[in-house]
Design goal:
There is one protein chain. The chain is an all-alpha fold and 234 residues long. The protein has seven helices and no strands.
Amino acid sequence: MSWLSRLRLQTIAFLASAGLLLAGCAAGGGYDQSLSPAQNQLRQSNARFNQTIGEGAGAGALLGGLAGLALGGRNRGQAALIGAAAGGALGAGAGYAVASNNLNRSSSEAQFNEAIQRASADADAFRSSAHASQEIADQATADASRLSKQLRAGQITQAQYRAGLAKYQADSSMITSQINEAQKSASTMRQNARVAPGSNSGRFAGSASDVEASRSQLEQSRVKMNLALAGASA
């Protein structure tokens, strides 16, 4: 086997491993005993949505690397790595589009049914996140009130006050991320509803309405949480 063939195989193996690693890292989301059930639920839902992005990045890195090998001229190893990086970035951006399975009027009934099931699963996940976010926002508000009283009484320092609320900063960021994902999901479901035949259209529209309702709840939770965290960031 020539050195060029070995390089090709090594690069392909590397890219495949990198793709699997990206997908695996995005999946994450084990139960953390130090967090509340609601916070764990929010993280598990977030890991579910991040997994589609990771899978897109992994596929993009692999395809980009292969393209680099095919078109890279003399320095194919370097071209493969550049292609992998570019493909990974594009794949991450397209991860949702890959997973959402946008449809058109020529799609089969089986494709519509599969997409409807995915839409329903997404709607359920956003609903769980919305409920969890409300519980987290309520707890953040209660903790902020309790810590503020302790701070005014001189029982804790400003640093201790901030540390007591620091765990909610990650929750706020996750809620923001899911608000953005909910907007994308609902938009795609609305698009699918416009091309789906018969009762399929209504099923897409129903899931879109559910996701939009969850998005509204997530936004309300974010506002409430950010108010609770305002003192900690001052």
